[in-house]
Design goal:
Length: about 290
């Protein structure tokens, strides 16, 4: 067996392992005290059913705490160079659709960046969910990479879907320009820019004139499109064939409509439910109250 260290983060060290039969896999060996982070990543990976998200093979907490992942053979998006605009937007469309599926499960990635994505046959595969949390989870810990992090993550250490959208925008900006705003400044200078709306808007003008990309990178999180809206925008623009995106749009709208109805009824104090109630029960109560 051959074992080669290929990376290290706050929670774990990452190794590429090749068995005697030639089979390869990636093993994350978690540092002491991070069992909850290890379990969370394993549970999230098992919950996600998408070909463009790395698959978990096994999880072991009996001896040395580790998580085994499939080995993805391809080129890192951080090393990928492409001038064809349609191909770039195709990659972003597929990436956004995968992120939309993850968001539909209530999971926020928090550290989406080119180094965490590998292109396998032109398909962007998300490799690392190590910093992922439930949407809106806040433990006052900054999760992410400063150069790809949204303003609200820098300012308030928030973890939510709109911040992932900002990261997708930054990835697109990098693919189009070969650089992003953080590349032109030292850390302290960049932090001064990203924390201030006027400075950020002035900076962004020097990198893109594309109105939709500017919207993805909006300082105000509420002004950004969702990951699903990004996928649908580029899919419609180029007539990309992206799996069941139209069906997903419909089901996502129905869920959001239900959620809005539930919130309105709850605020009017005419709907009572417990936090542990199953969603089917809550939707049934909504139907009864609206009838």
């Amino acid at each position: 067996m051959i074992k080669k260290k290929i990376g290290e983060g706050k929670f774990s060290e990452v190794y590429l392992i090749q068995e005697d039969n030639g089979k390869q896999f990636v093993q994350k060996e978690f540092k002491s005290g991070f069992i909850h982070e290890a379990r969370r990543e394993y549970l999230f990976l098992n919950a996600i059913d998408d070909a463009n998200v790395v698959k978990a093979i096994s999880f072991n907490e009996e001896e040395k705490l580790n998580l085994r992942l499939e080995f993805i053979d391809g080129i890192g998006l951080d090393k990928f160079q492409e001038s064809n605009l349609k191909k770039i937007h195709s990659i972003i469309t597929k990436l956004s659709f995968s992120v939309a599926k993850i968001h539909s499960l209530g999971i926020c990635l928090n550290d989406l960046k080119p180094a965490n994505i590998i292109l396998r046959n032109d398909e962007p595969v998300i490799l690392d969910l190590g910093l992922s949390t439930l949407n809106l989870y806040n433990d006052k810990y900054f999760r992410g990479t400063v150069s790809y992090a949204a303003p609200e993550k820098i300012l308030r250490k928030t973890n939510h879907e709109a911040s992932d959208v900002f990261a997708i925008g930054m990835i697109l900006l990098k693919m189009l320009n070969g650089k992003i705003p953080a590349d032109d400044h030292n850390v302290s200078e960049y932090l001064e820019i990203i924390k201030n709306q006027k400075k950020w808007n002035d900076c962004l003008v020097n990198f893109t004139e594309d109105s939709f990309l500017k919207q993805m990178l909006a300082f105000d999180a509420s002004e950004r499109p969702s990951a699903l809206q990004i996928a649908k925008y580029f899919s419609d623009l180029y007539n990309f064939n992206i799996g069941n995106i139209n069906e997903f749009v419909v089901s996502n709208h129905i869920f959001n409509t239900h959620f809005e109805a539930i919130e309105q009824l709850w605020r009017k104090k005419i709907l009572n439910y417990e936090a542990y109630d199953e969603i089917d029960k809550i939707l049934q109560l909504t139907s009864l109250k609206n009838s």
